[in-house]
């Protein structure tokens, strides 16, 4: 089994956590943008090859790995909704990060302003969900990967979201989370 990705991507990190948790042997194939453009129709990482099985999104990869291990992926609609909510925030945060890095002025564009507003409204909803208590399942893992990535890239300030900060502290006690931390420069 080969997982294609980078050590900084939060989506790839979640796959690596599940690979560790399920003790699935795999080869990590470090992949840059040129390679992912050739290797996946999404032109994104992660993607996974396991024999004739080719998967192109972290969600399908995680579902596959959990299934192989006889485990569940987002067992309830609420858990899957939380997973989707985190993805909405993460997708917008990454889009703004990549656009800004490519030299686009993200401050004066109505569509990009909507993406920034989406991040804020998702953070408020995530704070509310986290305050009620979370589990170390794929929704909770995705949330922790998002928070630590946003801090690592200095994209978001979590001071107004204490339950999200608390969730990150709890995640930092999980072995697989610690083992997959993005490289510190
Ligand atoms: N929905 C995808 C999102 C993956 C994604 O956005 N990956 C980023 C890296 S963190 C990427 O490869 N972006 C390249 C691009 O947008 O051109 C998943 O869950 O796998």
From TrEMBL:
* PROSITE patterns linked to this entry: GST_NTER
Read off the InterPro entries from this record: Glutathione-S-Trfase_C_sf, Glutathione_S-Trfase_N, Thioredoxin-like_sf
The entry lists its GO molecular-function terms as: transferase activity
Q: Which UniProt keywords apply?
A: Transferase
The record's annotation in CDD domains points to:
GST_N_family
| GST N-terminal domain: residues covered | 1-73
Say which domain of life the source belongs to: Bacteria
What is the name of the protein in this document? Glutathione S-transferase
